[in-house]
Design brief:
Structural class: alpha+beta
CATH architecture of the largest domain: Alpha-Beta Barrel
Radius of gyration: 21 Å
Strand content: 25-35%
Shape: globular
Order of helices and strands: EEEHEEEHHEEEHEEEEHEHEEEHE
Bound molecules: pyridoxal-5'-phosphate
CATH superfamily of the largest domain: D-amino Acid Aminotransferase, subunit A, domain 2
């Protein structure tokens, strides 16, 4: 499939003060769009000026929430080239999310090609300041204008780009996490493994309640026993117990994070002992009481690494590593940020320069 390019005639003014970018509030000049109709397949792939969609109010995405997305970043290197980090993994995960959501797959190679073309066209939007990046948001929605409660027949895949600020403008800082005792984000057999908008809709109430109580994030427990830890908001979670890096094993209920996979690969390469297994809340509190839990951190594209300073569960609370960034979290943060921005050698083939054509 060819990608038509329809350049915007009026380029927007780029933000002058990159310290005020924030996250996901400003968008570049262009978007990528491709449409799917049952019987015809994917067609009409184009890069076009960013504009509003016009959708019938009966469109299935509005009623049944058939929607999936991805999150990735493009980084400006010191030599001015732009590079992406494991973007093909995002494109492949999008296919897995589509299959789980009864949506049509879009060839990952084609997604990848389209996204690189889009970044190239909007390359001047990739910010320059330390820690900033161009956030990429591939999305797929169902667009059939009919209220029948079944999988739709028409879909739109699109990609928008947003210059985004450093996640830690004032330096990395440990966060306070509430272990959620009541609500569940996902259950066995559910949608937890898909990056789907509905999973987020299901999580906002708990997150809001935790934030109102002074916490930054929620650590989800399994939906059946309310005993085993799963993941945090938009991050996977890791613990360092007796020097071993422990993280919940993947399954139906956990999003297979690319940052998670990268940390595990780096950790194995550096000779850390790793365990992917079930971890109960009791184990965390007991390991802490015995002085065996030295640190814990979240992993995700937005923050890369987010050290945890405190866990609170019902009426109990523990402070980790004196509420300071631990050496393991700091090490993986420095390595990953270095590889992503091209200042640390990429020995894993994770990065690709965006071609200028
Ligand atoms: C995106 C996401 C993550 C992190 O995945 P990365 O690929 O590392 O960004 C973790 N959990 C959930 C629920 C997510 O949506």
């Amino acid at each position: 499939m060819d990608i038509r390019i329809n350049k915007s005639k009026e380029l927007k003014k780029k933000p002058q003060d990159e310290s005020k970018l924030g996250f996901g509030k400003i968008f570049t000049d262009h978007m990528f769009v491709v449409e799917y109709d049952e019987g015809e397949g994917w067609h009409d792939a184009r890069i076009q000026p960013l504009e509003n969609f016009s959708l019938h109010p009966a469109s299935s995405v509005f009623h049944y929430g058939q929607e999936i997305f991805e999150g990735a970043k493009a980084y400006r290197r010191e030599d001015g080239e732009i590079q992406v980090f494991r973007l093909m993994d995002n494109c492949e995960r999008m296919v897995n999310s589509a299959i789980r959501s009864s949506m049509p797959a879009l060839d990952p190679e084609f997604q990848y090609e389209a996204i690189l073309k889009l970044i190239n066209l909007d390359r001047d939007w990739v910010p320059h300041s330390e820690g900033t990046s161009l956030y990429l948001r591939p999305t797929m929605i169902s667009s059939t204008p009919a209220l029948g409660a079944h999988s739709a027949h028409n879909f739109i895949y699109f990609v928008i780009c947003s210059p985004s600020g450093s996640y830690y403008p004032n330096g990395m800082k440990p966060i306070r996490i509430r272990i959620e005792p009541f609500y569940a984000r996902s259950v066995k057999g559910g949608m937890g493994r898909a990056k789907a908008g509905g999973n987020y809709a299901a999580s906002f109430k708990a997150t809001k309640e935790a934030q109102d109580a002074g916490f930054e994030q929620v650590l989800w427990l399994d939906g059946v026993y309310k005993k085993y830890v799963q993941e945090v908001g938009a991050m996977n979670i890791m613990f360092v117990i007796d020097g071993v890096i422990v993280t919940p094993e993947l399954g139906d209920t956990i999003l297979p994070g690319i940052t998670r996979a990268s940390v595990l690969q780096l950790a194995a390469d550096l000779g850390y002992e790793l365990e992917e297994r079930s971890i109960s809340v009791d184990e965390i509190f007991e390991a802490h009481a015995a002085g065996r839990l030295s640190e814990s951190f979240g992993t995700g594209t937005a923050a890369v690494i987010s050290p945890v300073g405190e866990y609170s569960y019902q009426d109990k609370s523990i402070v980790l590593n004196n509420n300071e960034i631990g050496p393991v979290a700091q090490r993986f943060y420095d390595l990953l940020i270095g590889i992503q921005f091209g200042t640390v050698e990429d020995r894993f083939g994770w990065t690709n320069v965006v071609p200028r054509s």
